[in-house]
Amino acid sequence: MILAVLAVFARTVGFSYIGLDDAGYTFRNPFVATGLSWANIVECFTNFRHGGIWMPVTYISYMIDMDISRMTGISLSVWMHLVSVVFHALNTVLLLLLARCLAGINGGNGGPSLLLFLAVGFWAVHPMRVEPVAWIACRKELFWVFFTLAGLLSWLKSLTSGEAGAVRRHLVLSFLFCVMACLSKPSAMCFPVLAGAIHLLLRFRRVPVSGIPGVSRHRIICYAAMFAVAGGTAFAASYSQTHVAGQEAVALFAAPLHHRIVHALSALGFYLRATVWPAGLHVDFRMVEGIMPLGGVPNLISLGTAAIAVLALVLSPWRRCPGATAACLFSFVWFMVPIFPTLGILGSFGIEAHADRFTYLPAMAIVLFAVMAPVPEGIAKCMSGPSFRKAAMTIVAAYGIFAFRQAGFWKDDYTAHLRALDCDPGHPRAMVQVGDALCARFRKFDQGIELYRKSFALRPREYVKYRLAYALASRGNWNDYLEVKKLGADVVRNPALDGRGMMLDALG
């Protein structure tokens, strides 16, 4: 598994930064750029507004990166990308261990079987894993999933251990991992629900749970503490998303409920479709005004098709196999609970309709279902044959090759957003990012200015106007001078409007 991860993602170690969030989280973040110190640690715990997300453990890891880079001379981007690859490999191993344990509990296809390794390998090298691994700003995904998987393994051991001391130790460990996960990213608020699902799975399958006197009380206390941490994390996430530093406060429920529901269903359809056919993946999927999101119709068709397939499976005679119901319910909970907060129904968070990184933990449901679900005897014979093995390995290898190609689109900011424009030609933010690179890196002002103008026409924003003026001033034609004066007329009257000084520089 580790070799497979390295084969696909090792090349990302040499990649650069992505303009969205990478700099804002790291070397341009005032309490990260100066490295690890008590003052910076206190700031990352008490500052709920920076970047619109509260993730102190992740910020502390960035501080450590800054110090290691300074002490060793290793490029900061190289070190940060290396950390991402390492944690993805660790998460793959943890998933392998957890899937094997749960498959054994449910009487599925666990053990050292080829299916287990192929299922985990499918998740590990799938093209949708490229975004969280290749994007430095997505370290929060890798961290919270790492602590969640480690915590759930500890929780599972607390349920099956026969010694009171061992049970208490594992309960403490699972709670500490829950806290670390929630401090890495608020999405980890789902931890106690997933822990409860594992507990219910054991009850449903009549697996003996530790009945040592006094242990039940400790387990109830641990449950209560985990739900308290999850509730506090949810509150912090709501505040952070609606009170972003440097921006006006926004409403948590900005869009009508029926709009949010349609967008959520479209996102689910996209995730299911992209899992099977991962074409058109890129950075920064955008929201659109109105009830029907971008690509909503094919996404909803995909969701409907998947729902029919699941219904047919549930109504088939297979449902009477021991463990079939448990595998279906547990996999459904594993997928829906972590991804639900990102769908926008509970609040209009962010500016993205969906994102590959949001499926990092939910997509593990496919692995868990594959290894937990009982297989009828006839199908099991086919699966044990060499033809099935070759076909399955070929499919996993094909997804890995596609992921290797997809990773190439993340080598720098220009390449990533050029890919976004190829997939979505009307993307205003991608136009700005590509325009920045064309003007600043390649000195192709004509092309960059054209993209700025298109972006400003589609979505008028002050920062786009300032960039346009700066690019026009840098090109330096007489007509450009007149246009810059027109664009900066309001700043001439009130220089305080230009917080970053970009329009003032252009006028100068």
**Topology pattern, helix = H, strand = E:** HHHHHHHHHHHHHHHHHHHHHHHH
**Low-confidence spans: pLDDT under 50, at least 5 residues?**
none
What gap, in angstroms, lies between the N and C termini? Answer: 57 Å
Mean pLDDT: 91
**Alpha-carbon Rg, integer:** 25 Å
**Judging from the principal axes of the Cα atoms, what is the shape?**
globular
- Look at the helices and sheets and give the structural class: mainly alpha
Helix content: 55-70%
Strand fraction equals under 5%
Helical segment count = 24
Question: Quick gist of this model?
Answer:
This protein has 508 residues and is mainly alpha-helical. 66% of the residues lie in helices and 0% in strands.
Walkthrough of the structure:
The chain has 508 residues and is mainly alpha-helical. Helices cover 66% and strands 0% of the residues. The protein has helices spanning 2-9, 22-25, 38-46, 56-72, 76-106, 114-124, 130-134, 139-160, 164-184, 191-204, 215-242, 257-276, 296-315, 324-339, 364-372, 377-383, 386-407, 413-423, 428-440, 445-458, 462-475, 478-487, 489-493, 502-507. Helix 1 (2-9) runs antiparallel to helix 5 and helix 10 (191-204) runs antiparallel to helix 14. The relative contact order is 0.10. The model has no long low-confidence stretch (mean pLDDT 91).
